[in-house]
Structure formats: structure tokens, C-alpha cells
Design a protein that fits this description.
The longest helix has 21 residues. The chain has 6 helices and 7 strands, in the order H-H-E-E-E-H-E-H-E-H-E-E-H. About 3% of the residues have low confidence. Strand 1 and strand 2 form a beta hairpin. It folds into 2 domains: 32 residues, no CATH class; 129 residues, Glutaredoxin, CATH 3.40.30.10. The protein is an alpha/beta fold. The protein is elongated, with a radius of gyration of 24 Å. Strands 2-1-5-4-3-6-7 form a 7-stranded mixed beta sheet.
Length: 190
């Protein structure tokens, strides 16, 4: 007399000798190892909650700075390109935001992903942007910051830890954006 399986799992275990269950567990373990790496959008990306690594930045207007030189106060980093329409659209609001806070509570910097240094410099001149901007010719910052789409804005705490990444264009001087920034950086509303 044959016993009937009460559940599919019981039937499957009898039929495959537990092989399917073992393969399922192996696949699950593989996913746990592979998926976190696949979620990173760019090679070497620093994720939210992680600390930015050191990087040398080349100023578009000349000079340079190390990323670590901005530690000690919160930092808003905007990754942009002169050919990117949404990047161009939000640049005026970033300039107004930088002017409003004037580096007192937090700093604002831009990272251009342009291949053409002259195009990036021309755009900044035409836009009247005065906050510090750097060019990323070798994709080091673009990859580390996770800029697989533009614009990308990162909110970084005073210790260099990424608090938030915001993809897409927005009005950075709007009440909603000011509220987002003051809450993320734990600032008093102005």
C-alpha cells in the first residue's frame, strides 16, 4: 500500500530525495552573497550609511581639494553635467541655497562628470554659479558617489557619512527641500 503525500513539499521530498530543497537553499545563499553587490549602482559605490573614502578633487576654476577637507560640517554634493538638462535646471536653486546658508551650517559643492572641462567651466560662468565645483575626469567620484544617473545629490554628515542620496532634479531652495536638508543635517529652521 502506497502512502499519499499530504503536501507538495512532502511529495517533492519523496520524489527528489530532498535534492530540490537542497538546491533551493544553495540558491538562497548565493542570492545573499550576490544581491548586495548587484544593488550598488556603480563600481565601488559608497552606500547610504557608509563613510565616503578619500578622493582628490580638481577644481573647475583651478586648484583642488581633498574630499576630507569638507569634514567638520555637513556637506551637500551635487553631481551634474553641462549637457544634462535637469542638471542645468536645478543649478540656479543650488546657487540660491548656497547663498542662503553661505557655508555657515553646511557646505555645497558640485562635481561635474563632463569629459570636456571647457564645457563645464563655460556652463558655470554662464549660470553665475559661485559655490565650489570640481571635475571628475577619471570617474573616481562618479563611481564612488553612485552617479549612474544625473543629477544626483548626496547629503553627507559632518563625519563624512552619506545620509541620503536624491536622484533627479528638484528646486533646492524650495520649502520642501529646505525642510529635507534641515532635518537630515539636524539644523534649526531658518
Amino acid at each position: 500500500m502506497r502512502l499519499r503525500a499530504k503536501t507538495f513539499r512532502e511529495w517533492d521530498m519523496r520524489r527528489t530525495g530532498g535534492l530540490r530543497s537542497l538546491m533551493g537553499r544553495a540558491f538562497g545563499c548565493w542570492l545573499l552573497l550576490v544581491v548586495p553587490a548587484a544593488l550598488a549602482g556603480t563600481p565601488g559605490e559608497v552606500l547610504v550609511g557608509e563613510q565616503l573614502r578619500e578622493a582628490q578633487m580638481n577644481g573647475i576654476a583651478g586648484g583642488g581639494a581633498k574630499l576630507s577637507s569638507f569634514r567638520g560640517k555637513p556637506l551637500l554634493i551635487n553631481v551634474w553635467a553641462s549637457w544634462c538638462g535637469p542638471c542645468r535646471d536645478e543649478m540656479g536653486s543650488l546657487e540660491r541655497l548656497a547663498g542662503r546658508y553661505a557655508g555657515r551650517e553646511f557646505a555645497v559643492i558640485g562635481i561635474s562628470t563632463d569629459d570636456d572641462h571647457a564645457a563645464a567651466a563655460r556652463f558655470l560662468r554662464q549660470s553665475g554659479v559661485s559655490f565650489a565645483n570640481y571635475i571628475d575626469r577619471n570617474l573616481v567620484l562618479e563611481n564612488m558617489l553612485g552617479a549612474n544617473r544625473l543629477p544626483l545629490t548626496l547629503l553627507v554628515d559632518a563625519d563624512g557619512r552619506v545620509i541620503k542620496k536624491i536622484a533627479g532634479s528638484r528646486a533646492w531652495d524650495s520649502p520642501e527641500s529646505i525642510n529635507l536638508i534641515t532635518q537630515a543635517f539636524r539644523l534649526k529652521a531658518r
